[in-house]
Design brief:
Elements lengths: L1 E5 L4 H14 L5 E8 L8 H20 L7 E7 L2 H11 L4 E5 L6 H5 L2 H8 L3 E5 L6
Helix pairs in contact: 1-2, 3-5
């Protein structure tokens, strides 16, 4: 089973990584951790790359703490619209499942839409959404 774990560095992404690790360990697995840097029409700055690498390293650490083998974990940094890139990479990498956290926004923030909601709308891949209060 190949699982895509999109991350924005939040606690919600960390929670999703823990769920993904639990699922992965029950299968012959491969994990792909993805961080998307918003594309504002400029080239990626050094600090954005370093920040993205730190985010990926922290999720990789969580996965290994939960028992996943580091050699079964791949990381990827992409530029662009987060939801579109997540769906694109899921298809391109032929993943079986996307495991993604949600912030559980409400009110005006919800009306503006979330990355998770947009991924659910456009993905051809099964999406497991980990709610903000879920504990493992």
């Amino acid at each position: 089973m190949k699982i895509l774990i999109p991350t924005d560095g939040s606690e919600y992404s960390s929670n999703a990584a823990k769920v993904a690790a639990t699922i992965a360990l029950k299968h012959d697995y491969r994990l792909l951790v993805l961080h998307v840097v918003a594309d504002k029409g400029f080239s990626r700055k050094t600090w954005q790359k370093e920040g993205a690498e730190n985010v990926l390293a922290s999720i990789t650490e969580i996965l290994t703490e939960y028992g996943c083998e580091e050699e079964r974990i791949d990381t990827l940094i992409e530029d662009g619209n987060a939801a579109e890139k997540i769906a694109e990479i899921a298809g391109k990498e032929d993943v079986d499942r996307i495991v993604i956290g949600t912030h559980g926004k409400d009110g005006l923030k919800k009306l503006m839409g979330s990355v998770t909601e947009k991924v659910l709308q456009i993905s051809d891949v099964l999406v497991l959404v980990v709610p903000p209060n879920y504990t493992i």
